[in-house]
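Quick one: structure for this chain?
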Amino acid sequence: MPSISKADDEGQEGYNWHVKEIPHILNSDVVQLSSPAFQAEPVQELHGTCGIECQKNLPPPTQDDLENYLSYETIFDNGTRIMTKVKFQLPVGFNQTSPSVKHTLRRKRQIYGTDSRFSISDKHFMTNFPFSTAVKLSSGCSGILISPKHVLTAAHCVHDGTDYIKNTNKLRVGILKIRTKRGGRRRKGGKKNRESPPTEEDSATKGGKLKKQRGKQRKSVQKRSAAGKPSFQWTRVKAIQIPKGWFKEVSEHMSLDYDYAVLELKRPQKKNYMELGISPEIKKMPGSRVHFSGFDDDRPGQLVYRFCSVSVESNELFYQYCDAEPGSSGSGIYIHLKEPNKKKWKRKIIAIYSGHQWVDVGAEQQDYNVAVRITPLKYAQICLWVHGNNADCSQG
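Got it. Here's what it folds into:
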């Protein structure tokens, strides 16, 4: 597996993180909603989404439009649900102009030629930064830690645009950790409770006890042999937040642009997390290259890493050819740039991998692997969800 730390990126000069003033978002009103039905089926592909050519013909959104799209729904683990309306103030000189794009047709494929994905099998790589920030959702998707208790993922991993998918009310997040060796069970007082073998009298009078005891001993041996191997530690989700722009009733053409959600965990994790960054144009990224890791369905139990160059961009989306399979949706896409006035390089999340999608191209539909860019407005919204105030979200 190639080194991803500095070999490619630091050979490039002039690629820096640029500090930008972030729009100021304010919560203006909260509306109570009824509990959802949790009846939707998991979303594999989005159809009828406005694509590259379609976006060129869309009028730029007004501030009222953007405030509507960035209003958000929160659902809590007790089933209650609210809609929060927002207002925001834009920095001087802020604009929503889309960069020019080129369009390339291609055939439907999710693996493009030779499979360029890498399975991260070494336990030290899997459980150390940056790979340790990747998490698995019980819904089958991936996600990435953006704080000790917040996970960024794709909205379609929990919601189909109309309703929450089945079992979202019991959603859990799996974080890879190395199992520790245990010499036996512990009593409440803290001392080990070592099981003693049954006596002849026990086995004679309680026929099934010996068999049960041997079963426990086999399980104990299995646990000892598994010690030191990475496994998922599952944590329940306390709350889910999704932008209103994702919901189909707002606009059939805007859903993919807002395919992101933040999950608040019930308990914080003692793990490094990945910071958010504002997505630069592809010409300002070394090699136009992006990286992400997730849990692809065709490689169960493995963390899968890949990198590739972004081929096309719009104001809200990246279109790229990274090899990926279902299960990797929701992965955090990151790049490596130099910090301002420092020699240190830093990774930050700049997009969320939405997955293999169908998009409108003129009168036809074509498929792409698509990622939702973190724009200044989305950065402000996600940052507010994580911190609960604007004081920590003034610059990004």
